[in-house]
Structure formats: structure tokens, C-alpha cells
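Changelog excerpt

This revision adds worked examples to the README so contributors can see how folded entries look when concatenated. The first example is reproduced verbatim below.
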Amino acid sequence: MTNKGVEPVTAKTAQTHDGGTTQTPTGPDAETKGAPGSGPRGGDQQCQDPAFLLHRGGKMAIQATVPVRNREDLSLAYTPGVAKVCSAIAEEPELVHDYTWKSQVVAVVTDGTAVLGLGDIGAEASLPVMEGKAILFKQFGGVDAVPIALATTDADEIVDTVVRMAPSFGGVNLEDISAPRCFEIERKLQERLDIPVFHDDQHGTAVVTLAALRNAAQLTNRSLGQLRAVISGAGAAGFAIAKILVEAGIGDVAVCDRKGIVTAGRDEHMTDVKRELASFTNKAGLTGPLEAALDGADVFIGVSGGTVPEEAVAKMAKDALIFAMANPNPEIHPDVAHKYAAVVATGRSDYPNQINNVLAFPGIFAGALQVRATRITEGMKLAAAEALASVVADDLSAECVIPSPFDERVAPAVTSAVAAAARAEGVARR
């Protein structure tokens, strides 16, 4: 967070869990904290582990953007000067965007039920991830963000809580909330709030996947309309990827869960979400297990975990595109995928073509906040994917269908495209 008048703590920069950077205090304040594991619960492993060393005391802090050096500064930043601003906002509520941080800050909200690959670990245990998300917002999009971990898993309680907090924020990023509750929570919040609500596990993944697939198709001289895709995983990410691919004009897409292909004629393990999936996917009417769907398929997208048999991969179409994104173990190991695919992508940072949400969510929120959008539309997501894909440009190759998170062109391109799309779709307020 920016600081115009307060002496910052000296800091060191280190890489975060999903590709960003963070700062850890190294000055006198850091010395007072002690070493990780020095307390009664500590241990030698924590003392030596660099992850614990980096996280000691948290990964973020709030700093003032104005100085408070004397009585005059205090009288302007707080009473009596602040009363003028409060009264003006009370008379004209829209001024809150000009005279507070509201339009520059996002709430990162979780209930800790679907944290990374850890599952339901609870609110407190989710905080290191939420802090990481917040610093990625700042690092890659210039957007301030506040981690908020809620001590409830009840969908209506989460919605009511976020609605009550909403006056303090310009947007809400839902994070690591398990399906199918995440769908209900996002929908209800969108209905009740006039600020952007975005479930990153769904839409961030979908935007980056579409961008990479656009470039992979171009590299192999095909259009999206010529591709038949198979998605392994019918949860939050699988649903959103299927939806955005259909919106973008994919030839066909079938989604598979543990019971096989999700189709309208299937009765077993069909939730409302899966019935909705069946209504706009699998035009070919395929039935059976994942292996049946992969026979002759052009694209595999994995957001489920597990392992796909090599024999099934071998039956995919020529020049297949394999996006095996489970972490830390892709559904199809890259060594196997490269035997049969023209392009391979994963969710890991140690292989080329990482499908990383940090490529999307900072710029999407920056663009939405820039124009004070009331919501994030499908058109804004499609615009973000197209802008992200275009950054690759002349660098396009089998090992570069998506840019690096550290490519400085990414956030400005996505921000500009999202802001323009918001204006075009009539959801911008400036």
C-alpha cells in the first residue's frame, strides 16, 4: 500500500506461493518478533524452514498515505477536518469514492473450506493464503486488498456478513469457498450488491485457461470452433471454464466428474449445478467415463486431480492440447503429455505455460474499479482473456501460449480491456 509521508520499514523481497512477491521486515521491528518456532509451540523444523521464516508476523501491513507530523496534519486527517468530508459524503454518497479508499480496495473473503490443495482447513488456517492473495493484488494490479476469513460456512450467513461490510469496499473477491455453496454465495451477493463480486477459483481460472487455449489453437492453425474439449472436474473451476469456452465459441465441450460425462440423460449424482452444465455442454451427447470422452478429443483440461491413464491420452486427436492443471500433481504428467500433445500447460511454476490466476484477477479488478463498475460481466471476462492472449504476440510458441505473471504488460492490458468492456456493456459509472 502506498506511503507518501510515513517512514517505511526496510524489507526484503521473496517469492510467494503462487508466483508473486512479498516483503518481510528486516529492521529493528523484525528483531523483536523472534525467530519462527521460538515460542512454546515452536520446533527446529519451523526455525529452519524458509516458508515459516517468510510468514513470521504475516506478509502485509497497512500504511498511511498522508503524513501526520504535527497538530495541523492531525486536525486535517482526523478531527475537526474529517467532519467536513463526512458531512459531504452524507449529503452526496457518491463522494465516498473520491474521498476514501473505497474505490481502490477489495475484500478477499473466504470461509476456509477449499484452500488450495488443502481442502477444508478452517478460517484461521486460510489466512496465509488470503494474505498472499492480497499482496498479489497489490504487486500485480496496484489494488489494495484486505484478507477476511469468516467463522461460518453457512451460505446465507456469509452473504449477510459480506453485504454488511460492503460499504467499506469497492469489490469482493471470493476465495477458496467450496462448491456448490460458492455458486449460491456469488449469485446472491451479485443480486444484493452494486459492486463487483468475483469468485476467482471459478472465473480467474476460466479467463487464463481461455487465453492460453486461444493461443494454443492459433499455434496449431485451428480456431476455437474447430475444437472439441474435455474438462475433468465439474466443480467451481470446471463449471466456469465450460461456460466461458461456450461463450467464446468452442466447437463442443464435455465435462466429466467421478461418475463420468455430465449429460442430461444421466440420473446418478446430478446436482442442480451439473444439470445446468448438461444444458449447455456435450452437444455430441457422449456418455460413459472420462476415457470415452477423450477418444478423438482435441483438448484436455484438468481441474480435478487424479491420474488419467496414458492409454486414454494416446487416443486423443492429433496435435492435442493438454492443460493438466491440478497441483502439485497434474492429472497427466508433462512427460506423458508431451508424447501426444502439441501444447502442454500445467498449474505449476516449474513447467512452461503455467495457468496462473494471478494473470487475471489483479487486472480484472483494477479495470472494474477504474470505472466503478457495478458488476463483472461475461463480456468483461472475455475481454480480459483476449487481452491476456494478445500479450504473447510474437513470442507465441509451444512453450509460450500464456505470458509470465512477471510480464509487466499483462496487468495494463487486462485493466484497459476490462474497463473498456464495462463501458461498452453499460455497467461503468464513470
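The second example, added in the same revision:
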Amino acid sequence: MVLLRSRLTVIAACGALLLSATPALTTPALAADGSTGSTPTTAPGACAPNTDARLTVEEQRLAGPVPQEVLSRSGFDRAAPALTRALCAAKDARQAEQVVQQHGRALWQRAVDRVQGRGPARGDLARDDDRPLYWARLDMSRTLREWQPRFPLPEAGRAALLDRLEVGSRGQDTMRLPAGKGVKRIVVTGFDPFQLDQDIRRSNPSGAAALALDGTTIRTADGPARIEVAVFPVRWADFTDGTVEKTLRPHFTAGPRQADLFTTLSQGRPGRFDVERWNGAWRGGFPDNANASVTGQIPVPDGTGRTGGTHGPQWTSTTLPYRALTEADTGPYPVRDNTEVTEVPAGATEPVTRPDGPTPGSAARSGGGGSYLSNEIAYRATLLRDTTGLRAPGGHLHTPVLPWAPGNTDPDTGTLTDPDFLQARTAITTQIREALRVAAGQP
């Protein structure tokens, strides 16, 4: 385990040049390809942190030894100090916005590059690890929350900067599907690690697969297909605010870059993949990464895009080619067509479980993917498919659970990785790629 890095030491380094993890250009703007541009490098004097800033539940977890070990062993402990120096040098809100956008996007690209084998690994963690991105993002958001600018910055302005950091560091604003008829366009989404109070070492195979697939092209029976991805937080509030719809709508809307296939991914059940046939409009209340619990109907954007109070249909369904996916040899894990739901039948008051999907007029209590955020992203994405008129296969694929090797199951004494864990994560990513190849190759 590594010792905690002092935040005061990080902030005091305001005048240093950006680390090589964030290369600079000659202007304070982003390059045309979205890569990192320059930021001011001369600090305006003192830039002490606001130690009274109220940190989120997720940011508070950074103080533990495991997050610090993940950052240290991946080289991602450099991201927050680089952001600190750039923020300390910002002269106004406009420059601060440029800094945050630049560093957020740079973090995402660095995570993708590391997983896909480009550039130095800068640490001994396996390159396909999704956890450095998660913990570095939180390290950066804590830096931004504690930063005291030398110019007026209302709380709404700071919140907007935090949102820009979230969007940029999740790949949500850099999904660039190609135009033209010679290539299919695939949208894939993953999730952050979750249930961290039970085991803070956790990785999420959906997030790892997303990083491995971003910007790649696969060969299918129907020609080449380009994959673009984004990763989402495990937080009810962000979904209520419409983060899924804001990210996916541009790629579902008719045009030359419209998606031809989409798949939302999340970690599901041990030892198997599940194509979730039905998605329910119900939040079951399981605590999220912010330790918030929400129960009730899923609120969706209205016709104008406003979020919060509108409710959609009780059920949506997958249009993924589930028969082809369950019959194809995509890898070592079985792929199941999961049709089970929990509903309150029409005229009844108590929920019942149905093995073959919902009955007419029933109220949803659990889709095939449950009643947590994996079900919700599937519901939102498929509902958006229907409301935008997107004529493309799409739905949710649950991955197997990442296992720990025997003897490494205790979160207090266990290590960050082991052979079983590493082998499973690689196998899951490989099988997801093959499943996409099968789905995109259908006529």
C-alpha cells in the first residue's frame, strides 16, 4: 500500500510545468482531434485549497489505501496535480472552463490509450484495468471542488465545471461515429465500479470493455463496424438529470452518423452473459455509489428534453438479435436469453415473478436486469430508441461477475489483482467484442 499524498503539497506546486501525462500545445485551446492542448503554466501566487469544501461520498473514499494504490501503480496519481497547476494559473472563468474540458478529455484518452496498449503503462497494474480512470476522475473532481480561484466563481459556475469534467472524462462528448455507407456504427456504454463499501478493490468489466473497444473497428459478416463508447456513473441523481439521454440522443437522431447498433453493458451474474429481453420502469432503491437510495417510477425527459417528472411506458424490450447471440460461439461463458421480470399484474396489488415476460397492463417492479441502474440505462436507451424512431438493434447485455481467486476474497487483506481476476476480465472483454461482431453482422 502507498502513503496518502498531501493535498497541500499538490496545491503548492502551482507554478510547475504540466507533467508529461498531459502534453501541451502552443495555444490554450484543444487540438482539432480533441487531444490535449496547452494551459497557462505561470501560477498567480498562492493557491491554497479550501479544506472546508464539502466532498462527495465517492471523493471521501479516496482517502483509503486502495484508491491510492490504484493511482500510484498506474501513474494516474499525476492527473489531479496537473489539473491543480492549470487551475491555479487560470485568470478567469473562461480559461478555467478550457482547462477543465482539456484535462477531462485528456484523462479519458489516456485511459483508453493505456488499455489499448498505446504509450507507457506507467505502473505495474495490468493495462486493461478500468479502476485508474475511476479514481483519477474523483481525485480531479476533489481538486476542482477544493480549488479557490483568484476570480469570482459562484457555486453554479463550479457545478458547471464539475459537470464538464464528468462529461469529458467519460468519453461522453467525444463519441465520433463515421459517416457513410461503407461502415456500420456501434454505440456501447459501460459503468464505473460499484458496491465499493463492500469491497473497494472492485473493478467493473463493462467499464474495462468500454475502454478496450473505444474507437476500434471490428470485421463482421456484413462489413466493418466502428465502435464508440461512453462510461456512466453509478448514481441515481445523474440518471434523473438525463445524462443517458443527453449522451445518446445525438447518435440516435437521424443523419449520416446515426448508430446502426447499440449495446448498454453492466456487470450481472456469475458465470454467464444475459441478453435482457425486458426493461422495467421501476427503481428498486438499492444504494448507489453516493449511498443514495431511490424507489419509484423512472423519471424520463419529456418531449422538449426537460428531465425530472415525466413517466414512460412500464416496459421496453430489446431489439438485439438475442437468438443469434445465444446460439453463436462467442467465448467461454454461456449467453442466456433472459425473459424473467417481476410485475404487479393489472388489478393486483402484490408483485409476482414471471419467467416469460410481462403481462398486459402490468406495473413493472423488476426488468430482466433487475431494478438498479443497469436496468435503468437499458430502459432509457431503448425508450430513446423508440421515441427517436431509431431503426437499429439495441438493448442490454449483462456480463459475468469478476471473481477473486480463492484466498483473495477478503477486501481487508486481499490484493488488487490475482490470476483469476485478470483472466476473467480479459475473457469478458474478448467475448463482448465477439458478441458485437455477431450482432453487427446480422442482415
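Reviewer comment on example two: Residues 1-45 have pLDDT under 50 and may be disordered. The radius of gyration is 22 Å.
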